[in-house]
Design brief:
Strand order of the largest sheet: 5-6-7-8-13
Radius of gyration: 37 Å
Distance between the termini: 78 Å
Number of strands: 15
Length: 353
C-alpha cells in the first residue's frame, strides 16, 4: 500500500490537527506533547447523596468525640493508677500501668483527631482541582544578554584567565580555609576513650562514709537509712575530686534480706546491705531521696524512680536503664568492694556499645 493510501484510510478526526482538550489545553500537530489539562472532575457519592454525606459527617463527629473521651481518660489515668503499679500486658510484658494507659489514651486522642480531619477533607470538603497558569519566571532575553555581557566584561577586567598564579592560589585558599572550622571541633572536649567504663572502685577498696570520712562497718548501716559513701583514699582536697566522685559516689541502704527480690542483688549484698551508684542513669544527676517503706529512690531532676529491692530497676521516669550495683563484702569488720561496677555508671553514651 502506498504512503498516500495509508493516509486516506485514517479518519480525518484522528489526524494530528489542532483540537481542544480539558480545561482549555490545546494540542497541535507541531507539539504532540502539549499539556493535556486536568481530567474531568468526578463527583463523590457524598456530593450527590445527602445521606452518604450525613454518614461521613457522623463518622467525623464520632472520631472527634472518641478523641475527647480519650483525653478525659488520659487525665483520669493520673488519678486511678498508682505510680508504682506494674501490670503484665501481652505482648509487652511487665510494664508500668500508669505509663501504659497514659500512652494509650494520648495516642488514641491524637490519632482520632488526625483521622477525623483526613476523613472530613476527603469526603466532605470540595475536591475539585483548579488550574491556574503561572507567569514565566525566567528573565527576559534582553536581561539575560545584559547579565552575560556584564559577567564576561568582569572576568576580562579581573584578568583571572591570564593571571594563573593568582587564580590557582585563590582556589587553594578557598579550599583550605574551611578546615579551620573542622579543627575547632577538637576543642569540644577531651576524647572519653575508656574513662567512662571504669571507676575508682577496685577489689579491696573500703567504703568510706562521705559525711564522717570514716570506713563503714555493717553495724553503722541501720535498716531504712540512706548513707552516702566514697572510695577510701579519695579526699575532697584532691585536684580531680569532682571528676572522680561523679562516677564513684555510692548510696548504701539496708533492706531485710527477705525483702530483696533480685537474686544477684542478694548475692552482691552483705546481710541486706546493698550499694548502688548514686548517679542517675538519665542525665547523671545525684540521687538523694529514699523512701524506706517501698525501697524506692527518686532523682530530683526529672523524677526517675528506681527500686533498690529489685536490682535498681527503673519503675518511673525517663531513665533508660537500672542503677549499677557494687558488689560488696566484709573484711576485718569493714565493708569493702569485691570489684568495680559490672557496667558503666551514669547515663548512656554514644560509644557504650
Amino acid at each position: 500500500m502506498s504512503e498516500t493510501g495509508r493516509h486516506e484510510d485514517v479518519p480525518e478526526k484522528n489526524l494530528p490537527s489542532e483540537r481542544d482538550t480539558a480545561h482549555g489545553a490545546v494540542e497541535t500537530a507541531d507539539n504532540p506533547f502539549a499539556d493535556p489539562g486536568l481530567p474531568p472532575h468526578e463527583h463523590r457519592i457524598q456530593d450527590i447523596d445527602e445521606q452518604a454525606a450525613k454518614r461521613s459527617e457522623r463518622t467525623v463527629a464520632f472520631l472527634f468525640t472518641l478523641s475527647m473521651l480519650a483525653t478525659v481518660g488520659f487525665i483520669a489515668s493520673y488519678v486511678i493508677f498508682p505510680v508504682d503499679q506494674i501490670t503484665y500486658i501481652w505482648p509487652f510484658g511487665h510494664v508500668s500501668t500508669l505509663n501504659f494507659w497514659l500512652g494509650l489514651t494520648l495516642g488514641v486522642a491524637l490519632f482520632c483527631i488526625g483521622a477525623g480531619a483526613v476523613h472530613w477533607a476527603r469526603t466532605l470538603m470540595s475536591d475539585e482541582e483548579v488550574a491556574d497558569d503561572r507567569h514565566p519566571i525566567e528573565a527576559a532575553p534582553e536581561v539575560k544578554a545584559k547579565v552575560m555581557e556584564d559577567f564576561r566584561q568582569g572576568a576580562k577586567e579581573s584578568a583571572i584567565g591570564r593571571r594563573k598564579l593568582v587564580r590557582n592560589t585563590m582556589f587553594g585558599a578557598l579550599a583550605l580555609v574551611p578546615l579551620s572550622g573542622v579543627v575547632l571541633l577538637r576543642d569540644l572536649g577531651p576524647l572519653p576513650e575508656k574513662k567512662l567504663r571504669s571507676t575508682g572502685w577496685k577489689k579491696g577498696i573500703r567504703l568510706v562514709n562521705q559525711s564522717t570520712n570514716l570506713p563503714l562497718r555493717p553495724e553503722d548501716i541501720a535498716v531504712g537509712s540512706l548513707t552516702f559513701a566514697k572510695p577510701e583514699g579519695l579526699e575532697e582536697d584532691d585536684h580531680e575530686f569532682n571528676q572522680k566522685i561523679a562516677k564513684d559516689a555510692l548510696m548504701i541502704v539496708r533492706i531485710q534480706p527477705q525483702n530483696i527480690k533480685d537474686k544477684q542483688e542478694l548475692d552482691w549484698s552483705h546481710e541486706g546491705i546493698v550499694a548502688y551508684s548514686k548517679i542517675c542513669t538519665h542525665v547523671g544527676c545525684p540521687i538523694s531521696l529514699y523512701e524506706q517503706q517501698t525501697h524506692h529512690v527518686l532523682c530530683p531532676c526529672h523524677q526517675s524512680t528506681f527500686d533498690l529491692s529489685d536490682g535498681g530497676r527503673v519503675i518511673f521516669g525517663p531513665a533508660g536503664h537500672a542503677l549499677p550495683q557494687l558488689h560488696i563484702t566484709v573484711k576485718d569488720g569493714f565493708l569493702e568492694a569485691v570489684s568495680d561496677f559490672a557496667e558503666p555508671v551514669g547515663p548512656s553514651f554514644w560509644e557504650r556499645g
